[in-house]
Amino acid sequence: MTQNSEIHPALAPGTVQNLDLPNRYVLAPMSRASATEGGVPTEDMAKYYARFAQGGFGLLIAEGAYPDTTIAQAYANQPGLCTDAQQAGWKQVVDAVHAHGSKIILQLIHAGAVSQVVDAPHGPSPVRPDGHMLQMYGTKQGPYETPVELSEGDITEIKAGFVQAARRAEEAGFDGVEIHCANGYLLDQFLTPETNLRAAPYGGSVENRIRLTCEIISEVRAVCSKDFLTGVRLSQAKATQPDYFWAGGLDDAAIIFSAVAEAGASFIHLASERGGYAYHSSTKDGARLTKFARETTGLPVIANGGLEDCDLALEVLSNGEADFLAIGKSAMMNPDLPNRIANRQAPKEFTFELFSYGVSVSSQMKWEAEQSA
Ligand SMILES: Cc1cc2nc3c(=O)[nH]c(=O)nc-3n(C[C@H](O)[C@H](O)[C@H](O)COP(=O)(O)O)c2cc1C
After folding, report:
1. N or C terminus of the chain with fewer C-beta within 10 Å?
2. Is residue 213 part of a domain?
3. pLDDT tens readout for residues 95-108
4. What Cα–Cα distance (Å) separates residue 342 from each residue in 8, 57, 305?
5. Would you say residue 85 lies in a domain?
6. Is the overall model pTM greater than 0.90, yes or no?
7. Whose CA is nearest to atom 2 of ligand 1?
8. How many whole angstroms from 200 Cα to the centroid of ligand 1?
């Protein structure tokens, strides 16, 4: 923690593109599998997201929503943004957050080969992803299946889905979207040489493997208004491979970061898995990727991974490694984390007991009610 008389740098205002934010705390996207069966966000979700706005988060990144009705969905009860009903459901979430003065962007995610609901998951190449389906998200279980190889026509449709979902996000009032190219989902499957055995234009070199993400970013920028944020989330690790690193280290990173910047990304967000910020935001040789992204692109960078720790947050911000801090599990436990830090009140430590009744918002509310009884 800083000296008593000093203000923690995480509480200083910041800017992403033309969006002024009151502090550096961002809610990390977290899937809560709480939408209706048809992927429509509910009133409970609106209340859930409003809690973070009330608690001082200046920017919220809402959980990954699927951008088309065919092969994009990852989990049961995941929200989507490809029907009028889903758009109306999200509008109530956006309005509830804006009513408390915070900004909200939506993460758009395509599951590709790791879908736990689609009958025949599709991916860049017919290579079975390592690991097992995530138990917390119900539906199908066991090892992942070998995906059907996407045709060029399928890829065109996937792009169109992202672009149409981004349009809908702007119509619903969101302040932007985050394109998910992380954690082993479809766009990361393209970026990863082990799951992408294709030839050009979308396989082979790093430039080719990041191409689909870049095309989506630039097409979204072209159809949405200038001030609408179009960020990108990247990671080395996958949900089921926490020790995965980009083989080319900083050489790969230089190509990836400059490609997404040239495509028009508003920010770069580096996701962390179980190992925490320092481990996942560094190459295998220990070079800090967040700082490298910031220096090579000049874009705002969002860091992630255990950054509720005030000492670590201070280090990251004062070393110029990142501009913003995305908080995941600790925010779930402390929706008022920024206000707590401002009031010098220690955050409650996250416990997996929060998921005692499941991962959904209603399960958390049940658990919270039990705790306060
Ligand atoms: C329940 C849960 C759901 C998550 N869902 C998503 C998601 O939809 N999209 C995503 O990019 N990351 C997702 N994540 C990863 C978080 O955004 C974050 O990267 C991770 O929790 C590490 O940050 P933390 O140390 O602050 O918790 C999820 C994490 C959890 C715990």
Report:
1. C
2. yes
3. 999 999 999 999 99
4. 8, 12, 20
5. yes
6. yes
7. 30
8. 32
